Amino acid sequence: MTRPPPPATPQDALADAFRLLSRGVADRRSPFHTPTLATRGLDGAPDLRTVVLRGFDPATRLLRIHTDRRSAKAGEIAADPRAALHGYDAAAQVQIRIAGVASLHLDDATADAAWAASREMSRMCYATPHAPGAPVEEPPPAPQDAAAGRANFAAVTLRIDALDWLLLAAAGHRRARFAWDDAGALCAGWAAP
Ligand SMILES: Cc1cc2nc3c(=O)[nH]c(=O)nc-3n(C[C@H](O)[C@H](O)[C@H](O)COP(=O)(O)O)c2cc1C
Fold first, then answer.
1. What's the whole-model pTM score?
2. Whether residue 104 has its Cβ less than 6 Å from ligand 1
3. Residue 51 near ligand 1, beta carbon < 6 Å
4. For residues 147 and 64, is the Cβ–Cβ distance under 8 A?
5. In the predicted structure, residue 128 carries a pLDDT above the cut 80
6. Which of 5, 27, 99, 137 is most buried, most CB within 10 Å of its CB?
7. What integer pLDDT is reported at residue 3 of this predicted model?
8. Does the domain formed by 10-191 have CATH 2.170.270.10?
């Protein structure tokens, strides 16, 4: 398979990263559909898990995932909203690392819209009477009443404040870093891989 030429400028690399993230939302076979989300555990140790990337808006740099508001990660984000997201696309040979600030949406318009757009199967995940991670005597049966899940559902948005893009290539690896300040101004540049 012929590879496309590598991005010539950091701006091209950022466009590549945003394209991969957008595809991650739209294409469930994309590796960026299931990135790894890292948070700071309540004891200060790092905590990470796979999540489904549900939304990405390049204009606001907001990523969106869905979770159970009773989960450990929801409590961790409430305590410290700094979070990181990682994915690696083996076909594109691109790793993306993101750092930003997460926001929990429980009963606002963002959560309502996310719930409304969720499929029955996804809603069912939140309808379990047990909080995620709660000890149980034996694996519980699958829940049946998807509507009951809304009370436990949360949308989480992650604003991208920094992004690290790494392309592996025989002709030379390429790495670019991006950071946005509070006013949204972008600082972009190449970095040694
Ligand atoms: C492929 C895959 C996709 C997942 N997607 C989600 C998700 O979108 N949201 C979520 O809360 N957990 C998701 N999980 C489960 C989490 O990885 C994790 O086990 C669970 O949320 C509990 O994490 P916590 O205890 O750190 O909160 C997914 C797991 C896998 C394997």
1. 0.97
2. no
3. yes
4. no
5. yes
6. 99
7. 74
8. no
Does the C-beta of 132 come closer than 6 Å to ligand 1? yes
C-beta of 66 in contact with ligand 1 (< 6 A): yes
Q: Which residue has the higher pLDDT, 1 or 135?
A: 135
Domains in the chain: boundaries? 10-191
Is there an atom of ligand 1 within 6 Å of 193 CB?
no
Question: What average pLDDT does this structure show over 172-191?
Answer: 97
Ligand 1 atom 18 nearest Cα: 49
For 22-80, the pLDDT digits (tens) are: 999 999 999 999 999 999 999 999 999 999 999 999 999 999 999 999 999 999 999 99
- Residue 193 pLDDT exceeds 80: yes
Pocket test for ligand 1, best of 51, 53, 70, 119 (most atoms within 8 A of CB): 51
Q: For residue 76, report the phi and psi dihedrals to the nearest 5 degrees.
A: -70, -40
Q: What is the 3-state secondary structure (H, E, C) of 82-144?
A: EEEEEEEECCCCEEEEEEEEEEEECCCHHHHHHHHCCCHHHHHCCCCCCCCCCCCCCCCCCCC
How does residue 2 score in pLDDT terms, banded at 50, 70 and 90?
low
Q: Are 182 and 63 in contact (CB under 8 A)?
A: no
Contact in structure between 159 and 85 (CB atoms under 8 Å): no
